[in-house]
Amino acid sequence: MDKHDGGDPGALRVNDPWHDATANGLWVPDQAAPDTAPAAAAPQPVADPAAVYLEVQQSEAFREVRDRYRKFAFPAVGAFVAWYLLYVVAATTAPGLMARQVAGEVNVAMVAGLAQFATTFLLTWAYARHARLRRDRAALDLRWTLATRTGQERVR
Q: What is the domain extent for residue 136?
């Protein structure tokens, strides 16, 4: 049997970006903080997690978060894949164009290849910005709903 130092095992720090959302000012739940609740308040019954998950999945807030994700991700992935395939097709079917010098020893193929890297970083930045501005607060609200309805907010 492993030795236990007597600490609360539920208090273990998990590297979870959602965990620090309140401390970072990203999100504050709409409900009163637990320390402001009356001391004699009885614990609320915990709902069936499967039923709560289905209810949240069918909610308008969940559909909105999912739709915001899809409206960004699908066109962005489509554009990036099309840009990559254009680069590959041009490299295989138009070697003369790709070998054309742009500046010194730098040719069109090198510029297009480096643009692939730049596009990847730009797309990553755009995705993170879109998530932060359009989805994170609503997703945190959904997570809070699930945690409070299933009793998981007591884990940490």
A: 46-154
